[in-house]
Amino acid sequence: MKFIGDIFRLLRDTTWPTRKQRWTDFISVIEYTAFFVLIIYIFDQLVSRGLLALLDLNLF
């Protein structure tokens, strides 16, 4: 059962983030998520309007 003991030793030796660090990390994840959602939304709008403009020109 050395494997189980090694797992608990590894968990005990791990440095866990403080409460403040957890909130900082959470806010960072939310900021990155909002940024990429905005970029994807803008790209989607540009692509969809570009395709609609091509269809209005009766090229297809």
Describe, in plain words, how this protein is organized in 3D:
The chain is built from 2 helices and no strands. The protein is an all-alpha fold and 60 residues long. The protein is elongated.
Q: Would you summarize the structure shown here?
A:
The protein has helices at residues 2-13, 19-56. With 60 residues, it is mostly helical.
List the SSEs and their pairings.
Elements: H1 2-13, H2 19-56
- Structural class from helices and strands? mainly alpha
* Residue runs with pLDDT of under 50 for 5 or more positions: none
Tell me the β content.
Answer: under 5%
Largest sheet: none
Radius of gyration: 24 Å
Cα(first) to Cα(last) distance is 69 Å
Task: For this entry, give a set of tags.
60 residues; mainly alpha; 2 helices
